[in-house]
Amino acid sequence: MRQSLGDVLPEHGTGAATALRTLVRAVAHGAADPADPLCAAHLHTPPLALAVAADLAASALNPSMDSWDQAPAASELEAQVTRALAAEVYPRHTAPDAIVTTGGTESNQLALLLARERSGTPVQIVCDESAHHSVGRAAWLLRLPRPVTAPLNDPAALDDTLTRLHGPVLVVATAGTTDTGRIDPLPAIADTTDRHRAELHIDASYGGPLLFSAERRHLLTGLERAHSVTLDLHKLGWQPVAAGLLAVPDTTRLAPLDHTAEYLNAEDDTDAGLPDLLGRSLRTTRRPDILKIAVTLKALGRTGLAALVDRTCAAAHDLADLVDKHPRLELYERPTLSTVLFRPTGASDEQTAEIRRTLLVQGRAVLGRARADGRLWLKATLLNPHTTTGALQTLTELVEGSTPR
Ligand SMILES: *Cc1c(COP(=O)(O)O)cnc(C)c1O
């Protein structure tokens, strides 16, 4: 990379063709390719070609979503698509809405901010240890008390925790944890939070697209009982980064974000009927990330998206089967979404970590790692719907071949 880059800012430029060729090639050559079935460490998605094409068009058109005069059509598209996606989460509400974010991190931040603004006093976050690290960081950013952890899969323990706490509480549950892909028991959590008059936010960054799948939607039962829901379509939605959303059951819930700047949304313009966009984000200039999402929804439809979700989850079950049948590999649990944790039987944590590092440094496979039940596991996060059983077989062979004896 250093060689192809040469002088970063030459006195006289190389011209477009050379610059594009050398730099794009160098980055592609040294990329961790998320489409490679053996590159499965993170929730790092192989983007759909059509979403990439739409994203390129968005860059060329360059509408900015902070004021109507910069994005008349794109802002109308955003309004329609965000409402439609929010209605997937909140089908029984009359005015569900969603705002577009840079991903799960920003959506979780905004969810905590809205909870703080609703309560008027510092709100106490309660979450499971498996909650995404961005939840604790958002509490820090917003000067909220440090989150209290409670095992959300144990309703009695959550009940105890909520009984002990005084003042406003926001429980943050996860639909698809980053480490194992587990979905917290949403209906039981919603019952408990209701009983204590606590509020509920659900981080469905990973599991949200199960909504499209008739076969798997039931796993998200209870989602609509949350005060807000994080979605992140640059994971199981195959969008290029960034494609986050924060859904709320009613558009009025977004009112705390309202903001006026004379040059972008003067009151007399708003009174005269021009759409007021500034309150749809904390950002000002903002990319039309909705375009690639809209193109994808239209091109694939619900059944097309469901097929991708189902195939990806099926690939995880294939891998779990291979591990299960393997005499020298141990499976952590059957996958809920598309994450599979496994390790060589009898290996130490150090050896397990070493296997991951060896495969990574040799450029043969990129696996993640996760701690579960006090042990370190190799983590395969499958996001390529076209992953074959043969490729997964290769993955298990590579792990076995790198296991010290
Ligand atoms: C990925 C993820 C996030 C963070 O999303 P970004 O898009 O990386 O900001 C938050 N929560 C969960 C559960 C995630 O899997």
Automatic annotation (TrEMBL):
Q: Which GO terms describe its cellular component?
A: cytoplasm
> Lyase among the record's keywords?
yes
User: Gene3D superfamilies from the entry?
Assistant: Aspartate Aminotransferase, domain 1 (3.90.1150.10), Type I PLP-dependent aspartate aminotransferase-like (Major domain) (3.40.640.10)
**Keywords assigned:** Decarboxylase, Lyase, Pyridoxal phosphate
Domain of life assignment: Bacteria
Q: List N6-(pyridoxal phosphate)lysine occurrences by residue.
A: K235
Tell me its cofactors. Answer: pyridoxal 5'-phosphate
The GO terms this record gives for MF are:
aromatic-L-amino-acid decarboxylase activity; pyridoxal phosphate binding
What is the official name of this protein in its record?
A: Amino acid decarboxylase
Q: Which organism is it from?
A: Streptomyces pristinaespiralis (strain ATCC 25486 / DSM 40338 / CBS 914.69 / JCM 4507 / KCC S-0507 / NBRC 13074 / NRRL 2958 / 5647)
